[in-house]
Amino acid sequence: MSPAGCPHVNSFKVDNWKQNLRVIYQCFVWSGSAETRKRKAKSCICHMCGAHLNRLHSCLYCVFFACFAKKHIHEHAKSKRHNLAIDLLYGGIYCFMCQDYIYDKDMEQIAKEEQRKAWKMQGIGEKYSTWEPTKRELELLRHNPKRRRITSNCTIGLRGLINLGNTCFMNCIVQALTHTPLLRDFFLSDRHKCEMQSNSCLVCEMSQLFQEFYSGHRSPHIPFRLLHLVWTHARHLAGYEQQDAHEFLIAALDVLHRHCKDDNGKKANNPNHCNCIIDQIFTGGLQSDVTCQVCHGVSTTIDPFWDISLDLPGSSTPFWPLSPGGDGSALNGESHTTGATTLTDCLRRFTRPEHLGSSAKIKCSGCHSYQESTKQLTMKKLPIVACFHLKRFEHSAKLRRKITTYVSFPLELDMTPFMASR
């Protein structure tokens, strides 16, 4: 699909296409009322094999339901030249010409509106809109003005997760991954073809987890199989002790990366030459420029990364004065307050030139001798989903403490100042 979007959507956008799409969402996807849910259960079967399962899709051009997993909907699209179908599980639009799930602003707006209507009919969100804070919560709200009261028009998560004994570190990462649209489209489109002999594939388990999250069930999910597989493949996280969420994220991405296969069917062992879904979404390129202080020759290396670890003010490592926006001006989409630290500040420190000193001389290829140098890190390639890790814990021979510095995040982050210039 081109960066401008799917060019095949316009063939559907004729006459009363909005009303037709609303009817499909109301009757066959969200099904807010008990009557529509019964009608969906009776009518939504594959018109080729009669199955209820196998990821049913509905043709957007005619009344036709068929399996996605068995490619019955693909056969219909090819014979009728009906290029668009809708996933009846979560409402995603699939284009058979692009061979991918697509995004269209107008269709997405209709989907969200119909989902809200269905939730309202099912009573989802009523307990949130009528929520009243306790005395303790009122006290917390007074001391934390940044917190917001949950209202009826807020975005509600798909499903909760049961804590299996200090597993909140895992649950918060799972919630972040399941709400990532590109991962959702991959795991719900049955693209993974597993060749592992036993039930030890983390990609298969994540596929099942996405199915559970987008099944429409409102009861909390118990991720016991996921926890067991994490213990199996990342033994340093095994046990019921509290673990670090960032460490779990990297371990999970690493195992998913190893269990995925690229387009050529080769094992994804090299992060530099991998086309698996994890690397497509999370892998960026970090450029390191080492400049000789004598001849000013530059040695450049580019390494892949899944996350960026950022230092915070308040640690024993030297920081720098706050950005010029600290006087209340707006910088990089952020509204600064006096003394506040921002994500932009942390990124600016991460990408500033660092003098390595006389104790860390390197052999310059231009001078052919060991010289003092400076080092600067910049982004050569940005990942689709960027992960920033704030170094909240400081460890040294004499000190071990948590850094509680408040860091504000902008709604929109301009990464241009931190990109490599060459």
TrEMBL record:
Residues 159-422 form the USP domain. PROSITE patterns: USP_1 (PS00972), USP_3 (PS50235), ZF_UBP (PS50271). InterPro entries: Papain-like_cys_pep_sf, Peptidase_C19_UCH, Ub_carboxyl-term_hydrolase, USP, USP_CS, Znf_RING/FYVE/PHD, Znf_UBP. Gene3D superfamilies: Cysteine proteinases, Zinc/RING finger domain, C3HC4 (zinc finger). It is an enzyme of class 3 (hydrolase). Coiled coil: none annotated. Pfam families: UCH, zf-UBP. It is found in: Nucleus. The keyword Translocase does not apply. One of its GO terms (cellular component) is nucleus. Residues 4-121 form the UBP-type domain. GO terms for biological process: protein deubiquitination; proteolysis. Its EC number is 3.4.19.12. Keywords: Hydrolase, Metal-binding, Nucleus, Protease, Thiol protease, Transcription, Transcription regulation, Ubl conjugation pathway, Zinc, Zinc-finger. The keyword Flavoprotein does not apply. It catalyses: Thiol-dependent hydrolysis of ester, thioester, amide, peptide and isopeptide bonds formed by the C-terminal Gly of ubiquitin (a 76-residue protein attached to proteins as an intracellular targeting signal). One of its GO terms (molecular function) is cysteine-type deubiquitinase activity. Belongs to the peptidase C19 family. UBP8 subfamily. PANTHER family: UBIQUITIN CARBOXYL-TERMINAL HYDROLASE, UBIQUITIN CARBOXYL-TERMINAL HYDROLASE 22. This is ubiquitinyl hydrolase 1. It comes from Scomber scombrus (Atlantic mackerel). The lineage of its organism: Eukaryota, Metazoa, Chordata, Craniata, Vertebrata.
